[in-house]
Amino acid sequence: MHKKKFCSDVLLKCYLVLLALCAQSHCALWAEDVQNPSAAAPEFAQGKKDFEKRKYKDALKHFQAATKFGSRNTSIQYYLALAAYSSGDFSTFKRAMSRVVVMNDAYSGVGKQALEMVSKRSGAKPYCALTNGSVVRFVKSKMPIKIFISQGWMLPGNYGGNNPTTGVLQLMKQKNFWSTLPHDPSYHGNYHGCAMQGLHAWDWARSEGILDYQIVQSPQGADVLVFWCPKLQQGNIGNVVLTGYTSDLNLPNEHKVIIQLVTGGGESGDDSGRIALMATHEFGHCWGLGSHSANPSDVMYSVPAKSGVSENDRLTLRALYDIAPDVRK
Ligand SMILES: [Zn+2]
């Protein structure tokens, strides 16, 4: 495995930009994740009363009910974890405390404290999954996620190897866009299979019902588009640029993730392992794992060395899909 940089060290340079916009017709689709603090409050209050009286199992039930309406409430998840632990329900403890880790900045007091607790008591090390400070992920009603992996196509002009802006989405609407795309000269025929391998590393999440995705043969209508480029253009020697993913750009009905996988770099020999690993990492960002793990054995470490998705990666993704995303209109 070549030891090169994948995403740059700073998570922002992963260029995650998901266009997850809530056009009129989509609003209802996000209802599954609506937060309702006033509905959560009485359950939370009762749970705390029970907790203080050390009636942990009763408290647990109330906290669980509260999370249905307040999955993004750190206090509720934290109490839920503590009540679960005191009740001997360690799997609920681990999952709830992981949610606290996932939705809080890794350097925040509560983020650090939650990580320490879950790590000490379960050995697991989930990590923050915020994308530029927000919880961004696919919603179930948008699944199956349609994924198109091109055979060596590059984004045109300045977009190739660069951070695509919404401008590229406008370009895609032009009639001849797809028929005139340049081909990456460093692309080899087997790279498509490597990208597929990277995708399949996440099949466990499909089995668990967290994600659902399918490969499509046409770029039109795809939610995730995989392009290729020989190198990055912004001075970074990294092998990956991932783009296309944000929730606050004002383009109605757009909802795309654009991934660019870097093919070149002057390396000799078989690059297939490197590309599969890179693809695994970038698909992780694609699902919404918007921050890097601090643990080198995770595939979402900034410079991943392991090809497999770790238990920490799994735990983090599960927790991410337990909590409501931020949606901006
Ligand atoms: Zn990354």
- Radius of gyration equals 21 Å
What fraction of the residues are assigned to beta strands by DSSP? 5-15%
The number of helices is 10
Reported for the largest beta sheet, the result is: 5 strands, mixed
Pairing-aware structural class of the strands and helices? alpha/beta
What name does CATH use for the topology of the largest domain? Collagenase (Catalytic Domain)
Shape, principal axes of CA atoms: elongated
Counting DSSP E segments of at least 2 residues, the number of strands comes to 5
Arithmetic mean of pLDDT: 82
Widest sheet: strand ordering: 2-1-3-5-4
The portion of residues assigned to helices is: 25-40%
Number of domains: 2
User: Which distinct ligands sit in these coordinates?
Assistant: zinc ion
**Name of the CATH first level of the largest domain:** Alpha Beta
Give the N-to-C terminal Cα separation. Answer: 43 Å
CATH architecture call of the largest domain? 3-Layer(aba) Sandwich
User: Order of helices and strands, N to C?
Assistant: HHHHHEHHHEEEEHH
Low-pLDDT ranges? 1-6, 8-32, 236-253
Report on this structure:
The protein is α/β, with parallel strands linked by helices. It has two domains: 11-27 and 139-291, Collagenase (Catalytic Domain); 40-122, Serine Threonine Protein Phosphatase 5, Tetratricopeptide repeat (Alpha Horseshoe), CATH 1.25.40. It contains ten helices and five strands; from the N terminus they run H-H-H-H-H-E-H-H-H-E-E-E-E-H-H. Strands 2-1-3-5-4 form a five-stranded mixed β-sheet, with helices on one face. Helix 2 packs antiparallel against helix 3 (74-87), helix 4 packs across helix 10 (311-322) and helix 7 (191-200) packs across helix 9. The model is unreliable at 1-6, 8-32 and 236-253 (pLDDT under 50).
